[in-house]
Amino acid sequence: QVQVVESGGGPVQAGGSLRLSCTVSGARFDDFNMGWFRQAPGKEREGVSCMTGLGDTTYYSDSVKGRFTISRDNTNNTLNLEMNSLKPEDTAMYYCSAVTLSTSSCREVNSWGQGTQVTVSS
User: Fold this and answer.
1) Average pLDDT over the chain, rounded to whole?
2) Which of 6, 60, 100, 120 fits a disulfide with 116 by CB distance 3.0 to 4.6 angstroms?
């Protein structure tokens, strides 16, 4: 059974930084393309950034390009999201998910965790 634990969220002021992490167990991590999705109250779930199992292809939404950086550590079954220059519109619950992706799109396939809340104040 796959288990996912997201961490690293919290309150931050606009312009600040956070680093999200997601640890996966119960599966061969490098077999999975993984990504970060977010959902704000009253809004649709949005793909933020995704990466293939080997880390050779990445996707970033236009809203975070240049500010967020995705990375993964297949030895430790961890997916990370470095978030810089945060804006109030980045406020959302962030989820770590299995995905399919290209450089121009990312689609969520499965999500197991509870998410981690990011709140950016102006």
Assistant:
1) 96
2) 6
